[in-house]
Write a structure and sequence with these properties.
10 helices, alpha+beta, Jelly Rolls, TIM Barrel, eight-stranded parallel barrel, 32 strands, single chain
Length: 601
């Protein structure tokens, strides 16, 4: 079924009743109950930080039209508290407005406040400044972690508490930590997080979420809280596993993975829709609740993608499309109609599904040239000096790049060794690029020829801190140990922070620029709408449109396009700025209607 056929399959039917004040939610025996009657949670996951605020309501209407009655959401600590004690709940981070909008659209809400979120988000949602404390371990009873975690949870939950169902709001459940059984088994830590939540005034149903394996459930659950399980594929095996752990309790899939995320350099992932559709029907037939992860993935804009580490470092793409039923641009995918029909067949008596809202405007942009450029070096400020390289965290820097500079005043043809690059390095002498080092490929050495006239520069990019598994506790960025040339350690470094939060100070010219550089164009638009920028022909970097960082591109794929929300464009002139770490290539871009997935490296 194509997108047009999927749209045609959706019939317009009346809007179901919206949640309002004076409701109750809880557990009776092996069922969740709403206002005393059995209630099946039909939930979909989406994250407010990954969706422009102007599109929240559109995505929620589409969730309702698919037949969902609940919205599940993560919060990301690093967005709300970028520096200790500096909180932000404005604009796209207004969690209370997000929850109220869901309420208005007839959705109940499940909140997953963390403090750890995972979600393929930078550092699993933790702020990088936690790693500025040597030896401190996140997700543990280390008081140096629990103190800031408690402060954050108190402030975040102050936004949520007035919106609980017990106060007339739509929030029916709240998760304690997140898949902790996949990380550790410290019940004292889980208890500490629970106490933070309860001390903040949360009095609704709390729960834990883990995989269905015995070790995961043993490590991540609390005996008196309901437990949900997360999985993809056929649910029969998963709930059979869970039955060995607990019985006589409500059953729910806390994350039903209907797609998957992508790593740079790998193939684009799609879900097995036949399996997922059968799984949804199997759960509906048995009155088992579920949460579609993701119903709408959106985008990890800017530098917010996370990373995995199995045998090697695996950074995630900026697109979080996830092969969701509502795609990255908010359009319905073919699976949407199939899921909707499965849900429609199992609606309780009297419930109907609302109509699908009209599609949002979309445009294409003819190919345009970026004729102006400015060297990345033009943003260098005052350096920090030290005998050995300092990490991003040592420099109190969260994201972006650091330029490491050392004087090597002798002609040298030797092996340059960097221990350890995290995560991608461009090695230069002046503006001359000598080579690159890629943590994904465990690269640490490079044969170089230096003439000694100019300093050695090593530009290091943070490609995303690890968000899952034991290595997240130590994933500091930059050059994390030392640098040697021909076996002799290089001492006396200058470090220039390039967080790239603002790029307004760049001075562009029509002259060609050697080395890593920014490229700029002004694009005139008669109308605005959602569009994808086709970055094929470029090397590696980031793109800003009207000052907003869209995320990363990299010629290795699989993501070859960057989503531009139409609400970030304007009629008339629009500024497009591209940072490319590599010279040469195609300095032009086209705006296309659909994403391009192509792995080339």
């Amino acid at each position: 079924m194509n997108r047009r056929q999927a749209l045609a399959a959706l019939a317009a039917v009346p809007l179901a009743a919206q949640p309002s004040a004076k409701h109750t939610f809880g557990i009776r025996g092996d069922r969740f109950v709403l206002d005393g009657a059995p209630f099946v949670v039909r939930s979909g996951e989406m994250h407010y930080a990954r969706i422009p605020r102007e599109y929240w309501r559109d995505r929620m209407k589409k969730m309702r039209a698919m037949g969902l009655n609940t919205l599940c959401m993560y919060s990301f600590w690093n967005m709300h508290e970028p520096r200790p004690g500096r909180f932000d709940f404005t604009g796209n981070l207004d969690i209370a407005a997000f929850i109220r909008t869901a309420h208005e659209e007839g959705l109940w809400v499940i909140v997953r406040p963390g403090p750890y979120s995972c979600a393929e988000w930078e550092f699993g949602g933790f702020p990088s400044w936690l790693l500025e404390t040597p030896g401190m371990k996140v997700r543990s009873t280390d008081p140096r972690f629990l103190a800031p975690a408690g402060s954050y949870m108190k402030r975040l939950l102050a936004e949520v508490v007035p919106l609980q169902i017990t106060r007339g709001g739509p929030v029916i459940m709240l998760q304690v930590e997140n898949e902790y059984g996949s990380f550790d088994k410290d019940k004292a830590y889980l208890g500490a997080i629970r106490r933070m939540i309860e001390a903040a005034g949360v009095d609704i149903t709390l729960y834990t979420a883990d995989g269905s394996e015995a070790s995961e459930l043993a490590g991540g659950t609390l005996p008196d809280l309901p437990s949900v399980i997360n999985f993809g594929g056929a649910p029969q095996r998963e709930f059979a596993n869970f039955a060995k752990f607990r019985q006589g309790v409500p059953l729910m899939c806390g994350e039903y993975w209907v797609g998957w995320f992508d790593h740079w350099g790998e193939k684009h992932h799609t879900g097995d829709n036949a399996v997922h559709l059968a799984g949804i029907e199997w759960m509906l037939e048995r009155n088992i609740g579920f949460n579609l992860y993701m119903v709408h993935g959106g985008t990890s804009f800017g530098f917010m993608n996370g990373a995995n580490f199995s045998k090697v470092y695996e950074p995630d793409t900026s697109s979080y499309d996830y092969d969701s039923p509502i795609d990255e641009a908010g359009r319905i995918a073919p699976k949407f109609a199939l899921y909707r029909e499965a849900i429609r067949k199992h609606l309780p008596p009297g419930e109907t599904l609302p109509a699908l809202p009209a599609p949002l405007p979309a445009i294409e942009i003819p190919r345009f040239l970026l004729l102006e450029s400015a060297p990345l070096r033009s943003l260098l400020g005052k350096p920090v000096k030290a005998a050995r390289p300092l990490t991003f965290e040592d420099l109190h820097q969260d994201y972006g790049f650091v330029l490491y500079r050392a004087a090597v005043k002798k002609v040298a043809k030797a092996k340059l060794e960097i221990q350890e690059v995290r995560d991608f390095a461009v090695v230069m002498e002046g503006a001359r690029t000598l080579g690159t080092l890629d943590r994904r490929k465990t690269q640490s050495t490079l044969e170089v020829t230096l003439d000694g006239a100019l300093p050695l520069d090593i530009l290091v990019e943070n490609m995303g801190r690890i968000n899952f598994g034991p290595r997240l506790v130590e994933d500091r960025k930059g050059i994390t140990e030392r640098v040697s040339l021909g076996g002799e350690e290089i001492k006396r470094w200058e470090m220039y922070s390039l967080p790239l939060k603002e790029i307004g100070g760049l001075k562009f010219s029509p002259r060609a620029t050697a080395g890593p550089a920014f490229y700029r164009a002004s694009v005139d638009l008669r109308e605005t709408g959602d569009v994808y920028l086709d970055m094929r022909g470029w090397g590696k970097g980031n793109v800003w449109v009207n000052g907003r960082n869209l995320g990363r591109y990299w010629k290795v794929g699989p993501q070859q396009t960057l989503f531009v929300p139409g609400v970030w464009l304007r009629k008339g002139k629009n500024e497009v700025v591209v940072l490319d770490l590599f010279e040469g290539g195609n300095r032009s871009i086209a705006g296309v209607s659909d994403p391009v997935w192509e792995t080339v490296g």
